[in-house]
Amino acid sequence: MNSNLSSSLNNEMPFLKKVISLNWGLILLIVLIACVGFTALYSAAGGNLKPWALQQMIRFGVGFVGMIFVALVDIRYWYKLAYPCYALGIILLIIVEAVGHIGMGAQRWIDLGFMKLQPSELMKIALIMALARYFHAVTYDDMRRIPTLIPPLLMVLVPAVMVFLQPDLGTTLMLVMAGLAIFFLAGAPLWMFLSGIAACVAALPIAWHFMQDYQKGRVMTFLNPESDPLGSGYHITQSKIALGSGGIEGKGFMNGSQSRLNFLPEKQTDFIFTLWAEEWGLMGGVVLLVLFACVFLYGALISLRCRHSFGRLVAMGMIINFALYVFINISMVMGLIPVVGAPLPLISYGGTSMLAALIGFGLVMCCSVYRDVKLPHMSS
Amino acid sequence: MQKDNAKYTVFTRRAFFLGLLQTSMLGVLGGRLAWLQIVEGQKYQTLAENNRINTKMLAPKRGMVFDRYGTPLATNDQNFRVLVTPEQTDNLEKALSSLQRLIDLSQNDIRKVLQLAQKSASFESLEVKDNLSWQDVAKIEVNLPDLPGLSIDTGALRTYPYGVATAHLVGYVGAVSKSDLTGDPVLKLPGFKIGKTALERAYDQRLRGRAGTAQVEVNVVGREVRELSRQPASMGDHLTLTIDADLQIFIQKRLEQVKSASAIVMDVHTGAVYGMCSSPAFDANVFTRGLSAEKWEEMLANPGYPLNNKAIGGQYPPGSTFKMVTALAALEEGVVNRNTRFFCPGHYDYGDDRFHCWKRAGHGSVDLVQALSESCDIYFYELATKLGIDRLAAYAQKLGYGQKYGFELIEERPGLMPTKAWKMGHMGSRWKPGETIVSAIGQGYIQSTPLQLAVMTARLVNGGFAVKPWLVSHVGAHAKQAKDMIWPKLNFQKGFIDLIQRGMSEAVNDRKGTAFDARIKNLEIAMGGKTGTAQVRRITMEQRREGILNENMPWKWRHHALFVGYAPLASPRYACAVVVEHGGSGSSTAAPIARDILMKTQERDPSQKNIVIADGLAETDNAVTPPHKPNI
Questions:
Q1: Which of A257, A319, A326 to probe the B interface (max B CBs under 10 A)?
Q2: Residue B2 has pLDDT above 60, yes or no
């Protein structure tokens, strides 16, 4: 019904107008969250830019430029590139299986020299794009037909199985959940999800059987972390001590005894939220949660304002992917779920997760900048 | 288009649902955070503090021991040790071998350090060697720039300036053994020492002091990050003894002239002990510096029992020194008076048994004073037969036999004064009259310590007061004994104890007295006393017939030689007891030693000098004193 307007925008927009139409509010939120990360990393190093904070700033700077670039590239290119990106992701996963080097008992990254690339992180973005492209072309009625749903299901399962074999249970689950979210949003019938949940519950004992020892251990210590405070429950116990001892006002910047004296493990990566909330207390923790909430809301609004299905699905998919990370990481450090080894995006020290998060936001903004463009319509 | 709309509607509805899900998740996270930080915050704060803070014990300095004039008898010397901190060395083994080029270090020492290093964190300092000599310290200090990770540390080493002379008196300290653990956490400090014997043990609680604490912040591997607060340790109390160190050393040297002996000299009025020695002794410093197994074996094998304080723990038949007890009992009980005479033919028949006098030819007719001075056995056989053992024992106990005085040292032993009831209780048989007869001359079951003999003498010559011995004058500033302490009166008739004193005086100063050869010729400081010769082994009839000489018997079968004495004669002040184990006879061996001790004691006259209270001398201990510099 807005075909006139969309066709007029279909032509090249002036570059400056594109820049102005970027979501500067979202960018501000992202910068604020990243600054929380810099502050925490500076404190984690005992009041030092090295070895983490400075490196993280550089990565953020590079990623930021990449984000803006991704946002400004015409969404139709991304639409066309969705399947090639997915293929590239699969290839990278094969490479990591072949040449990836052993870290933490699992093959997860490719060493590019300047950074360690974790293909599974990029795979998630590619999967969301590929699924969005597929569902973009599917009609409401076709969604009710099983054969329509088989190809996208395979698109989820292939990378999921590969990541699971790495083995990286946490990323596998997130991949599957992000994929399912797209299915859900695209309008897949509800009975599928209900039966899927039932099947998962039934499959739990089998999954347990296939889990690695350390994964079983993590589940066991999650169920009773105090049983072995110096063994594998140590992470959760020390993290809860750090959080709880922070109180309402926190111990103050660079005064977190748990992190400064190294009682808190992995304080610069997975447990960085703990460090933040130990030093800045409940107030700092809530401020960060509110910042995340604003990001989710912003992303949802962008998605809903988008005039094409591809953009809606990509924007919402990226935001849900981001939210999943946030929920899983923070739930983990607070002892709500087992330790799975998921970083807190934009804050945890780590190249790939920073890059992936910023590319994701680039695509979200791209959906906003090009919300009115005309994409090839669905086949039927 | 309509279908597209339907798709959009489904999308918005489901997006809204996911939005709700996200909101509730955020709510859960916020709630969880608030729960941890507000509701459980206090609990986790405590846990975080427990993580962070370690309380470290600070060892207190041990109180020192001084003699009555402030001469130190036990001090804390600086003990120089060389430590190595593995993380500061480039290579631990290399560092140790370069140290080996400087000081004497065995392969075994190195192996021990390497083993220890495997078990401890790399930032912990390990002791490589302690008790370094001054030269070693100097050598290491000079080369320290080339020895990364090595450092010199000073600790306290208990040192006894007169290690041999005071070994049995002051005792020594040693490492805490399992049985010493009382729950006092200070005992678990590495290298902590506690008193093992004598005064070091008896006053350990007071000498030990109070441990201090330091609160240190530690990181996850236990490395100290900084000190948060410190409550310094307080040094233990000093002990001021009644002992005269010079006299003590003199006695020890004098005793070393015989194979095995002990002696004690005390004040007859106050009970203060001025000197107490047991020989052979050992150097207490050997125990604090590490004792070799051979040396230990050697001490255990020595027939003179160098580890035992025989002055208070050795129990001997008192022999003829007991005759004063028999005499006093008989006088008090009216069995005899000053003029009673008995005839001594050299032996005494009771029933079918014959008891001999030491003088085979007999003393002829003797009165009480003569009997004491010439030590006629027959006279006392007569008295004892009339008295009976229980009356005799009552007086012996009044004079200090068969009991502990609650003397400060745990090595004190009670001796034994038999009674009829005792024999029935312990041996299950009736007391025989013959046993009373041998008891009269301090033989048979009677056992006494040199300390008891000295106390008996003191009580006889101080006017009949139940004086008790004591060693420690002050603990810190606090006096152990009131200055004008009056001992309970024993209620002996003055005439009787005067008579006994006359007997003791004549025993030494009368030409016919048994100890005439050992008399002090200067009449102003002349002594009185009584010799004793205690049988170790019953003399058989054959030996008596054959006249086997004591000197020809093996050492361990020879008689013990005893002497109790006091001085000066006119107004007795000092009492002395000497026991020479297997010394032959009291007159020939023990009496000369007692004479020398009493002469030296009167020369120094400690009873006329004020005690220097050692409290407040703590500062002197803090000065850094290097180990004894060798004379180059």
A1: A257
A2: no
